TrEMBL record, chain A:
<dbReference type="InterPro" id="IPR035906">
    <property type="entry name" value="MetI-like_sf"/>
</dbReference>
<feature type="transmembrane region" description="Helical">
    <location>
        <begin position="287"/>
        <end position="309"/>
    </location>
</feature>
<feature type="transmembrane region" description="Helical">
    <location>
        <begin position="34"/>
        <end position="61"/>
    </location>
</feature>
<feature type="transmembrane region" description="Helical">
    <location>
        <begin position="186"/>
        <end position="207"/>
    </location>
</feature>
<feature type="transmembrane region" description="Helical">
    <location>
        <begin position="95"/>
        <end position="116"/>
    </location>
</feature>
<protein>
    <submittedName>
        <fullName>Carbohydrate ABC transporter membrane protein 1 (CUT1 family)</fullName>
    </submittedName>
</protein>
<dbReference type="GO" id="GO:0005886">
    <property type="term" value="C:plasma membrane"/>
</dbReference>
<dbReference type="InterPro" id="IPR050809">
    <property type="entry name" value="UgpAE/MalFG_permease"/>
</dbReference>
<keyword id="KW-1133">Transmembrane helix</keyword>
Automatic annotation (TrEMBL), chain B:
<comment type="similarity">
    <text>Belongs to the binding-protein-dependent transport system permease family.</text>
</comment>
<feature type="transmembrane region" description="Helical">
    <location>
        <begin position="108"/>
        <end position="129"/>
    </location>
</feature>
<feature type="transmembrane region" description="Helical">
    <location>
        <begin position="141"/>
        <end position="164"/>
    </location>
</feature>
<keyword id="KW-0472">Membrane</keyword>
<keyword id="KW-1133">Transmembrane helix</keyword>
<keyword id="KW-0812">Transmembrane</keyword>
<dbReference type="InterPro" id="IPR050901">
    <property type="entry name" value="BP-dep_ABC_trans_perm"/>
</dbReference>
<dbReference type="InterPro" id="IPR035906">
    <property type="entry name" value="MetI-like_sf"/>
</dbReference>
<dbReference type="Pfam" id="PF00528">
    <property type="entry name" value="BPD_transp_1"/>
</dbReference>
Amino acid sequence: MTVTSSTTTPRPAESKIPAGPAPVRRSRPDLLPYLLIAPVMIFIACLALVPAVFTVVQSFFKVDALDPPTRFDGFGNFVRLAKDHAVVGSIGNTALYVVIGVTLSTLIGIGAAVVLQKPFRGRSLVIAVLILPWAMPGVVEGILWTGIFDPNAGLINSVLSSLHLSDGDAVLLGQNRLLTIALIELVQVWQIAPLSVLLILAVLQLIPGELYEAAQIDGCTPWSAFTRITLPLARPGIAVTMVQAVIATLNVFDQPYVLNGAANTGASVTMQTYFISFQDLDFGQGYALSLLITIVTLLISLVVVRLVYRRVEL
Amino acid sequence: MKRRTGAGRSIGVALILIWSLGPIYWAIKTSLQTEADARAKPAHYLPTNPTLQNYSALLSGNSDIAPQIRQSAVNIVIECGAATIVTVLLATLAGYAFARMRFRGRNVLFYAVLATMAFPAYTTLIPLYRIMSTFGLVNTYTGIVLVYVSGFVPLATWILHNYFASLPVGIEEAGLVDGARRLQVLWHLLLPLARPGIISTALITFLFAWGQFLFPLVLSSDLSTQPLTVVIAALQGRHVVPSTLLNAAGVLAIVVPAALALAFNRYIVNGLLAGSTK
């Protein structure tokens, strides 16, 4: 490529230029960077952008393996979804998953990050243990937690019965909708909270210790130091944390699938998308529901960033 | 004052450890019991009479379960390993180009990569299935690996871009001459320096791949490609499999990610933070 170009590249002078990440070749387009990024761009174009466009376009088509051919259908898929009780129910369930999950993971994130804010012996070990639930498959975590929620031998029932608080045979999942959703979401929070802790902890590490010393000299209680220094300065980290939690909880699938099966008491929108597409084989409605989740995810993420994020200057 | 914060921290650390390890402990305990012991009342909080019979039943038993567990364990290792290698390779080249080279359209293309991270992964579930089905790649390692790579490569590119961007500029200047040599500079000078970033990216990609469930559930229809996660969830769906056996299967599926997380937590934490701050 450039090897043959004897006239264009001023080589000796170039190596003495001190600034700039790479020399600019104005004489002719340099193909090397395009070659380096090409594989990634091809992957993204073919397996992310094209499918995303598919989802948007096909939402307005009747794509049903049991009712061919594919044909334009306007808002037909969306209308059918709105009339589907299972879908409407799953939207309500998902709203609960999001509210419970984002609240809990943010609170745990802030609390644990404050505990870990100052260095102490063994802190890195605590962090290593902390990220364990993040590193494990959500579907397997659902199975581990069935052992906690089990109506007979589960940990919760065992502890309740050992403390003589109940007979220890309470059915925790699948009966009461709110309890079912709260407990399933607890399992997802178990998985996503470690990342919340890390993100908030990273921001807390940037707060200079002198701020706390000055606050203490001025007679600040630890609580007011927390509300007036820690919380405001942690806002960028909290915003990122909440966006991550919004994306994860709006798309929750593994935990309700394993812990509650197809029961209406806990089915999420993503589960309905799966059932509609891969059991009923009505891809058009599946596309429409995916599109809705995507739009809602992006909107809520934007709102969270607007409300919570504040640029911090120290 | 000092003592109070110390006590508060100890309670906090204890809560973190109980929260993180409690469910794992309970699963390991259950997996080491017989079904009768696990269901005994009052409950045994320690594995009295521990036994490995559940694990031997899973790995070498006579039922149809053992071959399924063994094959799906092989599958998950192949799929995660291949997806990790391809993702890290592609992301290293692109991350290097985006961070250290100037070219027309760089910013637009880089934002295009980053924008795909804002979309929920399941947006593309159905179209990816239909694309793979069109090309006959459903129920093949290739199909699953392609989907994994497309899902993980934006984050990997972003993390590695940040690592390359943080390396001092002078390094390339010293050796930089022309096209062919620039790749040598990448290989001999920058890659060794970027090694922590590459290890982080590889670990995070591998763990993400190991945790996949819905994509392989859709993309693999039988045991020839189903990973451990799908097979274990199917076991649970059968309802006749004893809970002790199920817990043992769960423990088997978390051994690898847990070991990686404990051994390389520094790399993982650094990579996650490099990938999330914007």
